[in-house]
Amino acid sequence: MEETTGSTEGPADAGNRVLDGAALKALAHPLRIQLLEVLSSYGPQTASSIGKRIGESSGSTSYHLRQLARHSLVREVDRGSARERWWERPPGSLTLSTPELEQDPTTREATRQVNRQFERGRSEALAAFMAGGCESVPPEWADAAVIATMNAYLTADQLAALTHEMTGILREKLDAYRSEPGASGTRPVQLHFNAFPLIDPQESS
User: Fold this and answer.
1) For 99-156, how does the pLDDT look when each residue is reduced to its tens digit (9 = 90+)?
2) CATH topology for the 2-197 domain
């Protein structure tokens, strides 16, 4: 399973990192997922600026950022004054599950916790946009947004081929539009691509 949330800076195909058990366990904390998502969405931040976004103290965010940095999930970036430490998420995607990790009950549970937190963040972001409707963003941004659901019957091989192809297309296309965080006329944008087999309750009854 691949978590394709990427950094706002750098090319979308900057690389894929397969997390080891230690990194997974370090990430399996709700606040650390939030820190990673803020850096992914808004670019480099200080512990204080992240804390203001998510309602946490700078002491708490600073501690958890350092723990993420121990596993190279975030890194310091040279900007601002010497009094402020800035952090960023390295570009690229994260693979959270491999057959080897799934064999270990501890890392398997850590993977599930991380995936649940990522999905909760995605759901909350979408819910916030839908709740505000056209009033939450300027009209041109509301017109440019789309929420789409498509259904199909596929084999496992077809689904694997489709997800691989579509993920590659999204990454390639995104590079043509990628801007620096804070560039004039830009705002954070999140892209979702979900493809999965539906579980029919009648089949398990």
Assistant:
1) 888 888 888 889 999 989 988 988 888 888 888 766 778 888 888 888 888 899 999 9
2) Arc Repressor Mutant, subunit A (1.10.10)
Burial class (CB in 10 A: 0-12, 13-18, 19+), 187: exposed
The full DSSP string for 170-192 is HHHHHHHH---TT-TT-------
* Rounded CA separation 71/16 (Å): 15
Q: Where are the domains of the chain?
A: 2-197
Residue 204 confidence (pLDDT) above 60: no
**Could you give the 3-state DSSP secondary structure of residue 96?**
coil
Question: What are the structure tokens assigned to 119, written together?
Answer: 């999905």
Residue 8's identity, in one-letter code, is: T
- Cα–Cα distance measured from residue 132 to residue 123, given in angstroms and rounded to the nearest whole number: 14
